[in-house]
Amino acid sequence: MIDFWTVNRYGTAYKMPDYIRFVDKEVPSRYDSNGMVITTDITKEQLLGLAEEQLATQAHVKFTFPPDITVPMLEDYELSELEIYELTTPMFAVNEAITVQFVDAATVPDFLQLSYDEALPFGEKYAKEREAWLCRKLQQDFVAVIAYYQNEAVGAVELIVQENTVELDQFFVREAFQRQGIGSTIQAFIEAHFLYHTIFLVADASDTPREMYQRQGYDYCATFYELTKQPPSL
């Protein structure tokens, strides 16, 4: 069964008595790479102290709370509710007009441009950091999938492949091409290539895609929460 601790977390982990600190100096503005997972119930005052610790080395603050940990409410912080879903009974409608493939040397430029454009709304600094990070990862054992419609790149997803699991990360379809079965076609491709892996993803509880995932054969596993505070300039 997939649970909170199955979810991948980027960055180097430093385990402390009350939390796990994640730091990635290569992508300091990436929230998923730089923050803290709180592992015990703590007070609001303690949390504010940990926020100051984060701000000593990064511009944002991020706390992640496992399902069994109480979330203290802090002013000026955004609370996000996230849900984990595991694929159990695949029911993907495939659009035959869509070509899906693993990212390779020939498709890297398209993948990088897609990813840059998707990251740009979060700031040029982040988009450039992420592009440089992807370039490094693509030289290693990085796995990603890209989709084309009429020879135009329209969607992509990064795969975090472990021994028994595959996590779908940074999954998106360009806005102009949504609701055409592209996301479903991408997932059908992944499911066909990882028949002996458990496929799962994390969805924002406030987004409509959650209902779509349920229709496609995903089962709910768990809910967890995040508290984030953006830099003052954002």
TrEMBL record:
N-acetyltransferase domain residues are 98-234
Q: Which GO terms describe its molecular function?
A: acyltransferase activity, transferring groups other than amino-acyl groups
Family matches, as Pfam families: Acetyltransf_10
Which Gene3D superfamilies does UniProt cross-reference here?
A: 3.40.630.30
Check the record and name the InterPro entries matching this protein.
Acyl_CoA_acyltransferase, GNAT_dom
Source superkingdom = Bacteria
What is the protein named? GNAT family N-acetyltransferase
